[in-house]
Amino acid sequence: MRGALVGALLIALLCLLAALPHRDALAPDIDHGLTAMGAPLSPSGDALLGTDDLGRDVFARISAGTATSLELATLSTLLALAIGLVVGLCAGYAGGAIDNVLMRLVDLVLAFPFLLLAILLAALLREADLASANAPVVLTLGIVGWTTTARVIRGKTLTLARSEYVVAARAVGCSPLRIIVRHILPNVAGLVAVLAALAFAQNLLAESVLSYLGLGLPPPAPTWGRMLFEARAYYRSAPWLTIAPGLAILTAVVAFNLLAEGLRARFDPKERR
Amino acid sequence: MKRLLLILAACSAPDRAPHWRAAGNAQPHDGGTLRLSVKDELRTLDPAIAYDDVSSWVLHSIYATLVDFDSTLQLRERLAEHYAIEDAGKTLHFWLRAGITYEDGRPIVAADFKTSLERVLAMPESPFGQYLASIDGADAMLAGKATTCPGIEARGDRELVLHLTKPDRLLLPALAMSFAAPLPADYLAKVGAELRRRPLASGRFTLGAWDEGRRITLLRNPHLQPGDHVFLDEIDVLESVPRDTQFLMFERGELDAADRLTSADYVWLVSQAPWQPYLHRAVGLNAFGVRMNTRRKPFDDRRVRQALNYALDKDHTVKLLNGAAVASHGILPPGMPGRADLAPYPHDPAKARALLAEAGYPHGFDVEYVTFPDEEAEKVAASLQADLGEVGVHVRVALMSLSAFQSEVGRPDGAPFSFWAWTGDFPDPGNFIDVNFASRMIADTNSNNNTFYASPALDAAIDAGDYAKAERILYDDAPWIWNYHRESVEVTQPYVKGYEPHPVWGRDYTSAWLDVGPDGKPVPR
User: Fold this and answer.
1) Which of A146, B303, B395, B493 has the fewest CB atoms within 10 Å, i.e. is most exposed?
2) Taking CB atoms and an 8 Å cutoff, what residues of chain B touch A54?
3) A 199-228 near B (Cβ less than 8 A)
4) Where are the beta strands (DSSP E) in B325-410?
């Protein structure tokens, strides 16, 4: 549980970082934020983490980027969980042909490498005229990332569907929807929490990868991945541009993995014993 | 303690000064391979088709033309011994040099020029046909209604006469481009479409090998034209090498020259005294700005276009580009004949706001700015977004793939507000102003005039050849937000001597030689 506490503490710190007041993270500051040659300024008392190639304060962008990255990861995790939960519950409860069809769909999605499929979808969705700038990234990660949840929930549902209280509920005439919502869903909630924390860490990383490949949010939106992408040419002359978002990504991924591990231990009956 | 010192030594900054030095040979000498890289792939070596930055200098190395531009932008005879403009500009008369040959030793004759020019006219996919449109009979060939062009006349082996329907000042400089290089009819019949990878060299280099998408090797032509000399045995070009990787390879000594440096590498290089002697700069034949579709609201109002020119701070752009650019007042780059003596629009947000209010936009407007993924284009977009935001014009930046971008900006109903840049094919103001702004260049698809700007006054100035007046009209009407002209910077290893970038063709290694040791290897510093 100590790991989960550390994870929760780190997440709280990240939320605090996202909420901190900071300078304008979007507008270039060409007059004051660059050297006479137009190069980024190194970290100093004036700019704690230095400036980027447009003269923008790196600390401000990290702070604003934390909010953006967490928002994207939250939305895409919710979408992936929703799809995975519905598919997993339906497959596990219905069994038979429905289970077969849904699990083959899972196999089909898993047959494509995660990153390849994400790049393909992100490129296609970017061309589509979607209402929100966040939508292509959220949809991509949601559509690509639901399969693990579906498989795990299906397995658990298969066991639960054969349990005595579910058989009893069925015998007294409860509808399948009522059985799923009232009797099965509460019993997979702990598992969903663990999956959510793991998926969150994975989506954070995946969003950074997509942004790094130029398939994330359009400029000037600050996300950690986009900051890394923009800093790639400066890794020798202005290393702070790479280190700051790199550390942010590392911290967030470690934090959510620690939390997931703690939650897993909390909901695992064997470990509780 | 010893371990600590070892760790400190391992952590110390690497030595990034040149690893090699010139061997100190007083006289240039033959031999050696120059190793380069390019960011993109070479698509074709067919001179009637190839039309991009990479193929421009590669083809110019392989093919020779009647005339050529020297390093001071002067047009000089090359395969032509001399030429004359006769009949009040309606006839171009060329006399070929004696003893000129292809790489296989066969002689170059006047009929070979007729063959290659007619081939361009007969190929709908060639982007160069319009350059020859003023030749008598070219129209019929371009329309696919004729197979020969009576206006191109080969008189014997050494005289070529071009009969024009009207004087055309752009034709002569256009003949310096590789599409106008000679090719014999029997060779074309033999190789057919394979010409794209089997050129017949008349220039200083021949094609040695081409592993498409990976590497192209040029060898010194064994049958150089009389009077020509080349020091290098070979030029080895790696394709598809990203710009930052290129510089790493250069530093490790795997390349002998690097150009189009990233901003980070450029800033680092110019701050390093040991590298200064090996930096080569040239003002490019280019113009960068923001094109506005002058038929679409709000850009149909000249006051709006002028307001945006006042709103953009060009000094910001120049600083963002690390000083390797100059602010522009129009499309003609510095040094171009006919360039008007005008100052760029000053950065004046108050005047911009007043003009916008006068035009009916007192609170500005929202607009989408289209560009493509590129370090420089995205930086300029961020600066534009900030400057225009200051006067109430809220810019949303949309990134498109390069192919989607190109098709989008050439349509009247495409994106009305976008990044645009023009690199001249040759140093003539007509190649900048006529192509981009003459009303006759407007088309429904792939329009060269992609601002759809039509001005009788400008057309008249173009017809009169008064480009200073044309520039003033364009300055006032502002179909672009005039932004900057880019300087090209290339760095070479200390042992590369005699090299300067060519203002028209970019890279030109005619006079380059390698000052290396007796074993043919660079001498360590």
Assistant:
1) B303
2) 320, 379, 382-383
3) 214, 218-220
4) 325-327, 365-371, 393-399
Query: In this predicted complex, what is the ipTM?
Result: 0.72
Smallest Cα–Cα separation from B312: which of B175, B427, B417, B164? B417
Which stretches in chain B have pLDDT values below 50? 1, 8-9
Which CATH architecture is the domain B286-486 placed in?
Roll (3.10)
CA distances from B430 to B249, B288, B425, B438, B466 (A): 40, 17, 10, 10, 10
Helix or strand holding residue B410 (H, E): none
B contact test, residue of A30, A32, A130, A240 with most B CBs within 10 A: A30
pLDDT in tens, B168-185: 988 999 999 999 999 999
pLDDT of residue B150: 96
* Interface membership of B268 toward A (CB under 8 Å): yes
* CA distance, residue B323 to nearest chain A CA (Å): 7
Alpha carbon separation from A82 to A6, A112, A261, B425, B460 (Å, rounded): 28, 21, 21, 57, 66
Shortest distance between the Cα of B373 and any Cα of chain A, in A, equals 8
Closest Cβ opposite residue A27 in set B321, B375, B386: B386
Pairs of CB atoms within 8 A across A/B: 69
User: Per CATH, the architecture of B64-194 is what?
Assistant: Alpha-Beta Complex (3.90)
Read off the pLDDT band of A25 (50, 70, 90).
confident
Check if A42 contacts B (Cβ < 8 Å).
Answer: no
Per-residue confidence (pLDDT) for residue B6, from 0 to 100: 52
pLDDT, one tens digit per residue, over A98-153 is 999 999 999 988 888 877 888 888 878 776 766 677 788 888 888 888 998 999 99
Q: How far apart are CA A122 and CA A124, in angstroms?
A: 5
Domain segments of chain B: what residues? 23-43+199-282+488-524, 64-194, 286-486
What superfamily does domain A2-12+58-272 belong to in CATH? MetI-like (1.10.3720.10)
What does the alpha-carbon distance between residue B312 and residue B346 come to, in Å, rounded to a whole number?
8
Residue B267 with chain A: CB contacts under 8 Å: 37-39, 237
Predicted confidence (pLDDT) at residue A21 exceeds the cutoff of 80: no
User: Are residues B262 and A53, on separate chains, in Cβ contact within 8 Å?
Assistant: no
CATH superfamily of domain region B23-43+199-282+488-524: Periplasmic binding protein-like II (3.40.190.10)
